[in-house]
Automatic annotation (TrEMBL):
Cofactor(s) needed: Mn(2+); Mg(2+)
Superkingdom as given in the UniProt entry: Bacteria
Chief location category: cytoplasm
Domain RNase H type-2: 100-317
Low complexity: compositionally biased ranges: 71-83
Gene assigned in the entry: rnhC
Record's cofactor remark: Manganese or magnesium. Binds 1 divalent metal ion per monomer in the absence of substrate. May bind a second metal ion after substrate binding.
One GO term (biological process): mismatch repair
Location relative to the cell: Cytoplasm
Protein name: Ribonuclease HIII
One GO cellular component term noted in the UniProt record for this chain: cytoplasm
Function: Endonuclease that specifically degrades the RNA of RNA-DNA hybrids.
Length: 317
């Protein structure tokens, strides 16, 4: 999704609001003077004087106001020539992102037949970033589960975070209603980020933007949100990058907390079912699922697995 930001004198905000009076939306987001939606784009004007235009017609709509002499900040693909593939987009974080105070969001459990999807968003202060660096916090995929179980309780006490868990019974229900996994992840990230933003506002915590461990292109992410009648309305920049855990400690912390929650949920599952549950979606998982099917029946298997995975066909054969 393309966007453009104008910075205008605060005294001009009423003029803009009057211009878009027929397109005004209901309650504007926190800190906004007004929000409007035209056929071309969405407009959010903030008390600070920043005006955010989002959508295909963002540039054209913003051009209407440039003649007034306002300053502009157009999103460009800085340093894009140094990147390729899925990271070659204008929402890639700046080169000095590790020096910034950012919210970091990550998820796990998406490729596991058993176990839920867990999404975590984390805020760390500058001092907290130094602290967890001494602990050796990094991408959870590079840390053994035993170490994650040791690190996570310390992180919980140290950082501000939001954890969301989507169990498989709900996952299956959403999937059968037509939602794909990407849409589910986008909604979970969006909600977790909004939760932490609200906490930051309550606790007066500073941050400069948000970094998501990229699972879809930025345009795809915004499209997923729009499909569920959601939108990014904050004036804070939203960045996307693959392997973001290696770019910023907040994402690394989110990765560990998401994995820790997943492990805890798997522990509960094994205890409740009385069957050892392997992680992933390989042959050992099929074997465990067949045992569970024989022991508890198909209804139970449905509730604890991602039913549309190919494992189901193999197990029911």
């Amino acid at each position: 999704m393309s966007y453009e930001v104008l910075v205008i004198p605060k005294k001009q905000l009423p003029e803009l609001k009057k211009y878009y009076h027929s397109s005004l939306k209901g309650q504007p987001p926190q800190g906004a003077f007004f929000a409007a939606k035209t056929s071309a784009c969405s407009i959010t004007a903030y008390q600070s004087g920043k005006v955010l235009f989002q959508g295909k017609g963002a540039s054209a709509e913003a051009d209407k106001w440039k003649r007034t002499g306002v300053s502009t900040t157009k999103k460009t693909a800085s340093s894009s020539s140094k990147r390729s593939g899925v990271d070659n987009h204008s929402s890639y974080p700046p080169n000095n992102v590790e020096q910034k105070i950012m919210l970091g969001s990550d998820e796990t459990g998406t490729g596991d037949y058993f176990g839920p999807m867990t999404v975590v968003c984390v805020h760390l202060t500058e001092e907290q970033m130094k602290t967890i660096d001494r602990w050796g916090v990094r991408d959870s995929k590079t840390i053994k589960d035993e170490t994650i179980r040791e690190l996570a309780p310390k992180l919980v006490k140290e950082c501000t975070y939001s954890l969301l868990i989507l169990n498989n019974e709900k996952y299956n229900s959403l999937q059968e209603k037509g939602m794909n996994q990407g849409q589910m992840k986008a909604l979970l990230h969006h909600q977790a980020i909004e939760n932490v933003m609200a906490k930051c506002e309550e606790e007066n915590l500073f941050y400069e933007g948000i970094l998501i461990d990229q699972f879809v292109s930025p345009a795809g992410y915004y499209k997923y949100l729009a499909s569920q009648k959601k939108a990014w309305t904050s004036e804070k920049p939203l960045y996307f990058a693959t392997k973001a855990e290696g770019l910023h400690p907040s994402v690394a912390a989110a990765s560990i907390l998401a994995r820790y929650s997943f492990l805890q949920e798997m522990d509960k599952l094994e205890k409740n079912l009385g069957v050892r549950i392997p992680k992933g979606a390989g042959p050992k998982v099929d074997e465990a699922a067949k045992k569970l099917l024989q022991k508890k029946g198909q209804e139970t298997l449905y509730k604890v697995t991602k039913w549309h995975f190919s494992n189901t066909q193999r197990v029911l054969m």
